[in-house]
Amino acid sequence: MLRVFQPSSDRDELIEFDSTIAIKNYRKGRQTSIIFDTNVLIDIDSAYRTKSPHSKLKEAGIVQFVKLIAKNSKYGIFISPGAAYRELPPARRAPVEAALSKMLKYYLPTFSYDPNATNLPFEDEGDTPEEFSELPSELQEFKSYSYASLLAMNIIYNMPTAKPIEKLNIYIDYCSEVLNLISLKELTIARYVFAPDKGITDSLRMRKNAIVNNFTKIKRGSGKRLSLAEAIKRISLNGANDLIMVTTADVVNNTRERYDYTPIAHDAWIATSDEKLYEFCRACPSILFEDSKGTMARAMDAHYDITGTRYWKESAETLSERLEERRGKANFNTDMSVIVQAALQTEALLLKGDAEKFFETRSWRSRP
């Protein structure tokens, strides 16, 4: 099922896209921009590889979506698939773009790309998705925190003897002491991932499972013949790309009134067929505030109503204490190259089989 939603809201629930959004934005002088997740492009490409592509597109919810765009195109709706192409293996990018162009020509014959967009040629060939260590330095820095923290989380998640609350504390210690940065998005993911399965409600289990599946398991069809170390790297980078997409929409929507990033104000939305990513955004939405100091604030569901396990109460208290402790610090990390090096070090430990011990013993504390 295709979801088109906004991860930022002034309410306690996600806003889903409908036919009134573009009209409202048009009246406010805003451009409606829809960021495509990679799985949407894959669904389109897969449909055109079958004998009945239009039927497959309809099953995926894409036909209904593009018809909605067509109906409201005069109000300025643009799609943004650029970042989604980067997640694909280089050899797949051109065929996927061709499938998207074919679909747009059929369903949106008057469609045109954003006049402010930059069209860059696809580079390289190959069937292997991007790897963090091979990215240009500026992209490494851009993705470094989400990647490094998710890499640590996946290693800690696979530690067989540590208890759930112990895993959360190891994760927080690493982010605080090594990365010198803690983000509530990644922290919320870790909290759900490490949580015990017992003593929770069906609705909380559904949310936990969605987050676990999105951020600790390999995407369908992309994990063949991978070692555990390589799978963890792939999972962590996929998760980082998801979080960057969410953050991009957050930044655009939460700061457009204060900063002129572009000549035209944008209203950013995410289009994805990944129900797991949607469930994560429900679990940790970005909240819009009038006060400029709160532009990037996020909400966290404490789950104090869960009484079948002490984990949720203990983890909420731990997070509150540690985040309050961080607020008292004057010097946060602004040099992202430090986090890049931490991520590369963790990759090396992972490939040598020493990563679990590194985290379990907090070995970084014994380094000179």
What does this structure look like?
The chain has helices at residues 19-27, 38-47, 53-59, 62-72, 82-87, 90-107, 137-157, 164-179, 184-194, 202-216, 228-255, 275-283, 311-327, 336-352, 355-360, and strands spanning 3-6, 8-9, 15-16, 30-36, 77-80, 265-272, 286-287. With 368 residues, the chain is an alpha/beta fold. Strands 3-1-6-4-5 form a 5-stranded mixed beta sheet, sandwiched between helices. A two-stranded parallel sheet has the order 2-7. Helix 2 runs antiparallel to helix 3 (53-59), helix 2 packs across helix 6 (90-107) and helix 7 (137-157) crosses helix 14. The longest helix has 28 residues, at 228-255. The N and C termini lie far apart (52 Å).
Descriptive tags:
368 residues, five-stranded mixed beta sheet, 15 helices, 55% helix, 8% strand
Instruction: Assign a percent range to the helix content.
Output: 40-55%
Gross morphology is globular
Radius of gyration computed on alpha carbons: 21 Å
Overall mean pLDDT stands at 85
Which structural class is indicated by helix and strand composition? Answer: alpha/beta
Q: Beta-strand level of the residues, as a percent range? A: 5-15%
Q: Main sheet: which strands, in order across? A: 3-1-6-4-5
Poorly predicted runs of 5 or more residues: 290-296
How do the SSEs run, as a string of H and E?
Answer: EEEHEHHHEHHHHHHHEHEHHH
Number of strands: 7
Q: What is the count of DSSP helices, taking H or I runs of 4+ residues?
A: 15
Separation of the first and last Cα atoms: 52 Å
The major sheet is characterized as: 5 strands, mixed
Write the layout of secondary structure elements.
Elements: E1 3-6, E2 8-9, E3 15-16, H1 19-27, E4 30-36, H2 38-47, H3 53-59, H4 62-72, E5 77-80, H5 82-87, H6 90-107, H7 137-157, H8 164-179, H9 184-194, H10 202-216, H11 228-255, E6 265-272, H12 275-283, E7 286-287, H13 311-327, H14 336-352, H15 355-360
Parallel strand pairs: 2-7, 4-5, 4-6
Antiparallel strand pairs: 1-3, 1-6
Helix pairs in contact: 2-3, 2-6, 7-8, 7-9, 7-11, 7-14, 8-9, 8-13, 10-12
